[in-house]
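Q: Give me the 3D complex with S-adenosyl-L-homocysteine.
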Amino acid sequence: MSGLLPLLLRRIRQAGPMTIAEYMGECLTHPERGYYTTRDPLGRAGDFTTAPEISQMFGEVIGLCLAQSWLDRGAPAPFVLAELGPGRGTLMADILRATARVPGFHAAKELHLVEVSPALRARQAEALSGAGPVWHDRVEDLPGAPVFLVANEFFDALPVRQFLRQGDGWSERVVGTDGERLAFGRTAPAPLAALADRTAETVEGALVETCAAAGALAGEIGRRVADAGGVALILDYGDWRGTGDTFQAVRGHEKVDPLDAPGTADLTAHVDFEAIASAARDAGAAATAMIPQGVFLERLGITARAQALARSGDTGAVAGQHRRLTHPDEMGDLFKGLGIHKRGEPAPPGLTHDA
Ligand code: SAH
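A: Here is the predicted complex, encoded as structure tokens.
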């Protein structure tokens, strides 16, 4: 057991209820008792699985997208090949394998990983031992060079706040206690400048989520590509300016109560791609249109790759993986892709700009 509950109860008794974001942050990344800090949650025996863990095809086509983006920019050397939240290192291992024959790419790359979890850093060290990765706690710590970056299912782990529309004001959903257990509560409604643009379009009782960390991170990425060049590919589940409660907990591949046994379940929220795009644009970079993951992977040639793999392997398994990653009823529509890059340079392959 993580033992996070007593710490949270004490904090709430001393300082009052926590925002959902504070709760999410403590549960996921508390330095000793956080969910990610203490475990490898991925895979069938873990709590959830991700696209790169489903099939090597995902990382292969993403790798080729990054390598083509690098070629399109005149093959800058050296450059930073970066991943945010690399999990078990599977995606980056597939990226490296798929790009091994792109002339000059490996020689020019410096591999940098942003990862909070010591447990997952150890897995990444095993998976990527030949590539000499350097780890960082934060994106701000990446070196300043042209950056080619991928973040898959990373932004969904960033803490969100939740606000309920009440009259012209907003009431924040918070985590307090009803004695020995955690319980949701609400603050008194008050006008909120940060949500002024959502007041006109929402109805009484609507729930809106904000993610300050995602905006800050997208801004930092935007500044870096605007200054030094490069591209960032962001893949996650979410939408363009969503509404509604998407805060959820998953343990053992099942949805569970997010307040139950804090620090032992994965907590996520849908990613607001509009907020990411506008933070990147405000920082001086270009952001592409958001597209469904299935469309993105198809444009990057995943079907041809699946056919090639099927010829030399288990056709049924490959077809199943392809379907899982791309089909609208599976991960194809719920997950989205978006690119951030330097203004005036072409969008990464597979992505386009709104007309
Ligand atoms: N990208 C991987 C793993 C996704 S799980 C995949 O697709 O399989 C989320 C990853 O982000 C984990 O590696 C987790 O430890 C890391 N992570 C979560 N919150 C983080 C934070 N605030 N800073 C850095 N890494 C974080």
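A quick observation: The chain has a mean pLDDT of 96.
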